[in-house]
Amino acid sequence: MKIVLDAFGGDNAPVEIIEGAVASLKKHKDLEIILCGDEARIKEVLAGREERIEISHAPEVISNHDVPTEAIRHKKDSSMVRAFDILKERDDVIGMVSAGSTGAILTGAIMKIGRIRGISRPALAPILPTKKNNDVMIIDSGANVDCKPINLVHFALLGSAYYSIIYNKPEPRVALLSNGAEEGKGNELTKEVYPLLKDAPVNFIGNREGCDFMSGDVDVLVSDGFPANALLKGTEGAVKAVLSILKGSIKSHFLSKIGALFMKRTFKDIKNRVDIQGRHGGSPLLGCKKLVVKNHGSCKRENIISSIDQTILLHEKNLNKRIEEAVAALGEGKGE
To answer: Hey, is 321 helix, strand or coil?
Structure first.
């Protein structure tokens, strides 16, 4: 079982990527890792720890400043393109992990790997904590904008299949992001999608507003990529602001500082709760023919370890086969 890593993707590459790979090899005895990037630099970081590691020399790097389509087409010796080529060409490679440019990863996955038959567009599916003891997925979080109704139906199939594997929940609750919970609410796209989701082979529970998506009452929130990405970024910004205000308030009072010492374990539990990347790895690009996991650009070795764990789990649980079955069931429901 082999996984290919873009060793030079992300803000902390290559050190954190390589250290995460080495740690994963200690954890999984039947795993082999392929590292793509500048061979001399990779060997320098490995410092002799090359057991079960294959290096594919790729001296170029795709940055966030590159135009994704041009970079994938012309930077053929980049670490990311080399990783995609290996994923596509080798049957023994089950998946790819990268913390590189999101646009380039999306473009490369479509151009190099392709979509599962019947899926109109792949989608990113990040997971966030809720106020209850569960997590919520938002799909699509920005890979696709200006979607058609069938795209959102496919997002629901992809998200439901993925969530059921990660949380061992056979029928996750699927909701549609709208500006009101009533069936008639929303723009034209939302109104067209609603009846399609009611007939789709998912556990559809209706519309939900943005304020409800972290309530704990929704497992998979389906949306066009533009509003979903705005909701995701707005939520992340709000959480950071609240935590910053809380930290500043604690530091401003002596008694608050004393109280914080007694709440140290509570603060640690909160930190672990919101560290979704640490618990589940990156965001998978669902709907591709092979597994592609996108890590945050600032990820550390712990996130790489979690992403490798995630890739192995999705492979062992036959995620793509489940998606194919869901697409077939959708076709049967239409009488196809």
So the answer is: helix
The pTM (predicted TM-score) of the whole model is 0.84
- Taking Cα atoms as reference points, which of 129, 71, 56 lies closest to residue 102? 71
131's tokens = 């106020």
Alpha helices in 252-287 (DSSP H): 254-262, 264-274, 276-280
User: Count of alpha carbons within 13 Å of 258, Cβ hemisphere only?
Assistant: 3
Instruction: Tell me how crowded residue 146 is: count the other CB atoms within 10 A of its CB.
Output: 9
Instruction: Dump pLDDT digits (tens) for 17-53.
Output: 999 999 999 999 999 999 999 999 999 999 999 999 9
Q: Residues 58-68: what's their mean pLDDT?
A: 94
Q: How far from 11 is each of 62, 63, 216, CA to CA, in Å?
A: 12, 10, 32
> In the structure encoding, which two tokens stand for residue 202, read together?
């998912």
DSSP state of 229: H
Q: Percentage helix, strand, coil, to 5, in the chain?
A: 50, 15, 35
DSSP strand pairing (123-124 vs 283-286): antiparallel
Instruction: Tell me the angle at which helices 254-262 and 225-251 cross, rounded to the nearest 10 degrees.
Output: 110
Domains plus CATH for the chain?
1-119+287-306 (3.40.718.10)
Q: What is the pLDDT of residues 242-291, one digit of tens each?
A: 888 988 888 888 888 888 787 877 767 776 666 555 555 688 899 999 99
- Alpha helix positions (H), 167-224: 188-199
